[in-house]
Amino acid sequence: ELPTGQPPAISNNYSLTITKTGSGSGTITGLGIDCGNDCSEIYNNGTSVTLTSTALSDSIFTGWSGACAGTGNCIVIINSNKTVYAQFNFMDKIAPIVMIIEPLNNSELPKRGSIKVAAYATDPDGIKDINIYIDNFLVKTCTNTKSCTYSWVINKVSLGTHIITATATDKFNNIATTSIIIYKTQTLGIIENILEDIGNLFR
What we know:
By secondary structure, the protein is mainly beta. 6% of the residues lie in helices and 54% in strands. It is built from 1 helix and 15 strands.
């Protein structure tokens, strides 16, 4: 028992514990830490410990919590017992599913007007972007969504075969591509084109 009025002794040693979370795998290294297997250490009060994350090839490091935050190196000043959580997630290498739902493959374009081009994509980790191309020209990009639409004015589209392509990229940059073929067999006549141009002036 301490004499009356004497402050309690202050501990000069504290623990740092690393706990790995998530579906993936990786290692945390730092002063006295190789976690892996050695995931805790005792330090003198005031010690600065820098922790570095290294994900395995099938995983990605997604961040710190507890005594650290963010995704860069974790710097911990040891002045009490502390715990750092390091999250590794499995890095999906499977491409998303993407489809063109409008128009139908091998369909014929109308003579005039516009048609809706609609693409849809899905992936367990989420879709980063969908791109729509017509005859290899990018016409629409949609981000952070499963669906993407484009209104294609086809009045002056040339006769023959045209290709609509949709690509989808997931959060791990896996890319999927799909294409359909459509046809145009009718076009506006000279008078119809003139009337169409005049009509556009008043829209």
